[in-house]
Design brief:
By secondary structure, this protein is an all-alpha fold. It has helices at about 1-15, 20-25, 30-65, 70-90. The protein is built from four helices and no strands.
């Protein structure tokens, strides 16, 4: 019984939130700007799904006719993959680096 009281008190201490700090965070414009950018980049990320289908279809046709994929599309695919990686890092807060067009398109 004593152990459960200790665990409950410890959990309550961890969960307690400083409401003044939360209010200050809500007033911070950079947090809201980041939210807007995250939503925009998630739309961009979703749109690239169409581009990936297109690239895959074109590469399949190239492979059928020439037995090898198109080198230009391979290069573009690598850049697109790196760009999507930047978007994922930004929207998951793994990085503060804003993806293209706020930074150079990845190589």
């Amino acid at each position: 019984m004593a152990k459960s009281k200790v665990k409950k008190e410890t959990i309550q201490e961890v969960v307690s939130v400083n409401t003044e700090e939360v209010v200050e965070n809500i007033k911070e414009t950079s947090i809201w700007l980041r939210l807007i950018l995250v939503v925009i980049f998630l739309f961009v990320f979703t749109f690239t799904d169409i581009i990936l289908w297109f690239i895959a279809g074109i590469q399949f046709l190239f492979t059928i006719f020439t037995k090898k994929p198109n080198e230009n599309l391979l290069g573009f695919s690598i850049k697109l993959r790196n760009y999507l990686s930047q978007i994922i890092d930004f929207v998951t807060y793994s990085s503060d680096l804003k993806p293209f067009p706020f930074s150079p398109f990845p190589d």
